[in-house]
Write a structure and sequence with these properties.
The complex is a heterodimer of chains A (about 250) and B (about 350). Chain A is an alpha/beta fold and about 250 residues long. Chain A folds into 2 domains: about 130 residues, Response regulator (Rossmann fold); about 110 residues, OB fold (Dihydrolipoamide Acetyltransferase, E2P) (Beta Barrel), CATH 2.40.50. In chain A, strands 2-1-3-4-5 form a 5-stranded parallel sheet, sandwiched between helices. Chain A starts with 8 loop residues before the first strand and ends with a helix. By secondary structure, chain B is of the alpha+beta class. Chain B has 2 domains: about 150 residues, no CATH class; about 180 residues, Heat Shock Protein 90. In chain B, the strands form 2 sheets. Chain B has a 5-stranded mixed sheet. In chain B, strands 1-3 form a two-stranded antiparallel sheet. In chain B, strand 4 and strand 5 form a beta hairpin. In chain B, helix 3 runs antiparallel to helix 5, helix 5 crosses helix 7 and helix 8 packs antiparallel against helix 9. The relative contact order of chain B is 0.07. The chains are: A alpha/beta (about 250), B alpha+beta (about 350). Chains A and B meet through helix 1 of A and helix 8 and helix 10 of B.
């Protein structure tokens, strides 16, 4: 780490309550080495501000409208230190300690704040653990994604799982097809598959997951393989194993 | 399952038959020229068989509960059963004695008792009917025990719901956020910080006080609500707007305490808090056709990420309403577009009636 002693760190404060933001600002005041680059009242603003200000440190509220703190975490870069701020759920937050991310419980005490800040500073510049892994561990087990957050530049799109037509693997990315548009997201198809409700989404091919509700019919296509025709006309390849999975799911539904 | 089998009471029941078997043995010895040992063995087997046969009365007794079927049906059912059972018993006894005794002794017995077959048959019928009466008593006892257990369970449930409601009042989320707001205000605006401390204290005190009562006036609920809303408005600032339309006459109505605040909290936590720009919560209340009608409306974001304790407060209100009013109270939740509505309708308990 080659940070000079004079280097000032940029911080973001994200909380939907003005008063809560105020406390953190106040607690940061004695620390001249930290500059508050921006304050954000919701997750969208936070994602935008991250791209704009490239902060080193972010104080992130968990419960916010539209995008939660966990969503924001998933969308921002891996080189930002995150300190979560929350009014409750210290149990869920403990999971983050494992990943060397700190959290503060409201009401925020000065001593605890200083500790968190020290820890964050000592880690500044280090790579954070994969945001995807963190977001996965934040989600309660046995609960499937109800929506997917995708970032395109500074624009954030929320895709409700029910509106997702199919997913196509493209190298390190997945293309999410929804309502005639395709959104790229950096994630592997296998990890996305694990987060989707297996009663609605089927991996029909090494590179495709389909929303069962969109499939109109299956046509034979060459030897051993088939095509799934979706309601919007899209044609997706179905592998032999994928066809077996599709059939067993359809049998269950009967 | 027969209640006697389930509760180790079979022994007591069989004990009641011992005098009968003993009498029978005595008669057999004195008039049938049998030895004591043989007479006892035969009588015991004979009456043990009938005692077990009489246990079957439980099934027709259960099928024809007292007071719910006509007397004629009752009489016919049990008389027919009695005749069959007694017939089965007398025939089986005859077979038993015939098989167990030497022809000479059988002949003596036949001479002595042959004419009295009808008497034995009648005794069988009467014994069976006695067993029917016994079973009705048994069933009544079981029923009352079950009713008692059910009542106790209902009481526990009601108490449980009350406790949960109280706990929900001092919702950690609400409390910690409020404390955080106060902490922020101490440096920005100490006077407001103090006001908020006082408000929070009053709110908690009122909550605890109201929780101890079974019924409170609607106006008291509204007072509590006002405290709660003032605190939340400090937290949310401009984002939280409220509007109340309360019919004056409804304020004297009585209702279980702490119903309104959870509805409001639900509207704020899951409604207003999900909107970056905030929104409005509207409360409408009035009496209508002898019922108190309450409507809470708020804007919300249907695509908001689900919060973990979603609907806990509402379920709690529902449980408490059920405990008190059964099916007389209605709690309806409707979500249409970005409008969320919770309506509550309970029968009015006015002051003079309570």
């Amino acid at each position: 780490m080659s940070v000079s002693t004079k280097k000032r760190w940029r911080a973001l404060i994200v909380d939907d309550e003005e008063l809560a933001r105020h406390i953190i600002r106040e607690l940061l005041q004695p620390h001249s080495e930290i500059e508050v680059a921006a304050e954000c009242a919701n997750g969208f603003e936070a994602v935008k501000a991250c791209a704009e200000h490239k902060p080193d440190l972010i104080f992130l509220d968990v419960q916010m409208p539209k995008l939660t703190g966990f969503d924001v975490l998933e969308l921002i870069g891996e080189d930002i230190s995150v300190i979560f701020v929350t009014a409750y759920d210290q149990y869920a937050m403990r999971a983050f300690e494992v990943h060397a991310i700190d959290y503060l419980l409201k009401p925020i005490g000065k001593q605890r704040f200083e500790e968190a800040l020290e820890r964050a500073k000592s880690r500044l510049g280090e790579k954070m653990p994969s945001a995807q892994k963190l977001a996965d561990s934040a989600r309660p087990p046995q609960q499937f994604l109800e929506r997917i957050v995708v970032k395109d530049g500074t624009r954030v799109t929320l895709i409700p799982a029910a509106k997702l037509d199919y997913v196509e693997a493209q190298d390190d990315y997945v293309a999410l097809a929804s309502q005639g548009k395709k959104h790229l997201k950096q994630q592997t198809i296998a990890s996305l598959e694990a987060c989707l409700d297996p009663n609605c989404f089927v991996r029909i091919h090494r590179s495709y997951i389909v929303n069962l509700g969109r499939v109109v019919r299956i046509e034979p296509y060459g030897k051993d393989s088939r095509l799934a025709i979706l309601s919007d006309g899209a044609r997706l390849p179905v592998s032999r194993a994928g066809y077996a999975r599709l059939q067993s799911l359809l049998d269950e539904r009967k | 399952m027969h209640p006697l089998f389930t509760r180790n009471r079979l022994g007591l029941y069989l004990l009641a038959w011992v005098p009968l078997a003993a009498t029978s043995a005595y008669v057999l010895v004195s008039r049938g020229t049998l030895g004591w040992l043989q007479a006892s063995a035969l009588s015991t087997t004979d009456y043990l068989f009938f005692a077990l046969l009489c246990l079957s009365a439980w099934y027709p007794c259960r099928a024809t509960p007292l007071g719910r079927v006509s007397f004629l049906r009752l009489l016919l059912t049990h008389l027919i059963a009695a005749v069959f059972m007694s017939l089965a018993w007398t025939k089986a006894s005859a077979a038993l004695f015939y098989a167990a005794l030497s022809p000479e002794k059988w002949a003596v017995l036949n001479r002595e008792f042959g004419q009295q077959g009808n008497v034995v048959f009648t005794v069988g019928v009467l014994l069976y009917l006695l067993s029917v009466a016994f079973h009705y008593v048994l069933i009544a006892m079981e029923d009352s025990r079950r009713a008692e257990a059910q009542a106790a369970e209902a009481r526990v449930l009601a108490r449980d719901a009350e406790l949960k409601a109280l706990k929900a009042q001092i919702n950690p989320h609400f409390l910690f956020n409020s404390l955080n707001s106060i902490s922020a205000l101490t440096s920005i605006d100490p006077t407001r910080a103090r006001d908020m401390c006082v408000l929070l204290g009053e709110f908690l005190r009122m909550t605890l006080g109201l929780g101890e009562k079974t019924l409170v006036r609607f106006s008291e609920e509204l007072d509590l609500l006002e405290k709660y809303l003032t605190i939340e408005k400090i937290r949310f600032g401009e984002r939280l707007k409220t509007q109340e339309t309360i019919q004056e006459e409804s304020k004297a109505c009585l209702l279980p305490p702490l119903l309104l605040q959870p509805l409001m909290e639900n509207a704020i936590r899951h409604g207003i808090a999900s909107l970056p720009e905030g929104g409005e919560v509207r409360l409408t209340a009035g009496r209508q056709n002898g019922r108190l009608e309450i409507l809470v409306e708020n804007s919300w974001d249907p695509e908001a990420p689900p919060r973990r304790s979603s609907g806990l407060g509402l379920r709690n209100v529902q449980q408490r309403l059920e405990a008190r009013y059964g099916k007389e109270a209605l709690l309806r939740v409707m979500a249409e577009g970005d409008l969320f509505q919770v309506s509550l309708s309970i029968p009015i308990e006015s002051e003079d009636k309570a």
